[in-house]
Amino acid sequence: MASQLLHHRILHRGTAPASAPIDRRNLRPPTTCAAAVTPSLHRKLRVAVIGGGPAGSSAAESLASGGVETFLFERNTSSAKPCGGAIPLCMIEEFDLPLSLVDRKVTEMTIVSPSNITVDFGKTLMPHEFIAMVRREVLDSYLRSRAQSAGADVKTALVTEIRTPSTTNAPYKVIYTEEGSRRELVVDVVVGSDGANSRVAKAIEAGEYSCAIAFQERIKLPDEKMEYYENLAEMYLGDDVSPDFYAWVFPKCDHVAVGTGTVCSKQNIKMYQRGIQCVHLS
Ligand SMILES: Cc1cc2nc3c(=O)[nH]c(=O)nc-3n(C[C@H](O)[C@H](O)[C@H](O)COP(=O)(O)OP(=O)(O)OC[C@H]3O[C@@H](n4cnc5c(N)ncnc54)[C@H](O)[C@@H]3O)c2cc1C
């Protein structure tokens, strides 16, 4: 069977708009048990999923559940990704997430314009709806452990190189560093879910694409100030906090996550972070 190198961003572009709703209940694991044992290989299909964020962990869980021999590579299993971590209610259902992962169920979410006009789009929520606030390290590690429970071999390892096959039926070689040692794994399929600076994208010469840079701090507030954010998340627009993205103050378990991002002006990210600190602390 011909090896395939898949990159989820490319598949997204090629198959459906990113905003197209996906009903997970109608999805089957991408490969069934029968198909997982490929006749020409006389063994299970072997897949390396590079990147253990939400995309990679979900892919690894589905593959392992379908009987595919699955390896999930994540270079950093402990640090918190600088991501707002606000997730819509539909994601909880779609990904079968336990509510224990949710730090706060927020129903007020304001967007503040550069001229200080505030719109509460929490008003668009139905009475039973909320916006879930999660910490990424909590969500990501849950999804990785679920992939592991489904049978994926989860490796805390940095993938340093992907060697693409020189002939049609040859396998891929994944080179990685694990516990300080250089190792290699031969696989039939590689799934690229390694985020913005994707090594997989480079290996398949996916070309140039733009990506955002983000900065986030976790700030513990005095109780009376934290009370203000009990049920409130804020997003700010304006050149002082980001020329092309938004800045946020999102309440989490015992702190607020304050951050910003930009695509077009990455060198100024610290200045924008100071901007949102000023807005937030004023
Ligand atoms: C500023 C900003 C704010 C955002 N806020 C929100 C929000 O509030 N809510 C929301 O739903 N989304 C938000 N997003 C989007 C969200 O962060 C992404 O959609 C999501 O992280 C994509 O998940 P992923 O699994 O594709 O990639 P990632 O989450 O980027 O995961 C990629 C993983 O691959 C690992 N990796 C990379 N290279 C290697 C390698 N060579 N070897 C091994 N492992 C590797 C990384 O460590 C990482 O864990 C935000 C994005 C930005 C930029």
Structural description of this entry:
The protein has 282 residues and is α/β, with parallel strands linked by helices. It has two domains: 4-80 and 138-203, FAD/NAD(P)-binding domain (3-Layer(bba) Sandwich), CATH 3.50.50; 105-131 and 212-281, D-Amino Acid Oxidase, subunit A, domain 2 (D-Amino Acid Oxidase, Chain A, domain 2), CATH 3.30.9.10. It contains eight helices and 19 strands. The chain has a six-stranded mixed β-sheet, covered by helices on one side. It has a five-stranded parallel β-sheet with strand order 1-15-4-5-11. Helix 3 (54-65) packs parallel to helix 5 (136-149). The protein is globular. The termini are far apart. It binds flavin-adenine dinucleotide.
Full CATH superfamily name of the largest domain: FAD/NAD(P)-binding domain
CATH topology title of the largest domain: FAD/NAD(P)-binding domain
User: Secondary-structure element sequence?
Assistant: EHHEEEHEEHEEEEHEEEEEHEHEEEH
Radius of gyration: 21 Å
What proportion of the residues form beta strands (DSSP E)?
Answer: 25-35%
Total strands: 19
Total domain units: 2
Estimate the helix proportion, in percent.
Answer: 10-25%
Report the CATH C-level class of the largest domain: Alpha Beta
Shape: globular
Bound molecules: flavin-adenine dinucleotide
Largest sheet, in brief, is: 6 strands, mixed
What structural class should be given to the helix and strand makeup?
alpha/beta
Task: Walk across the major sheet and give the strand order.
Answer: 9-8-17-18-19-16
**CATH architecture term of the largest domain:** 3-Layer(bba) Sandwich
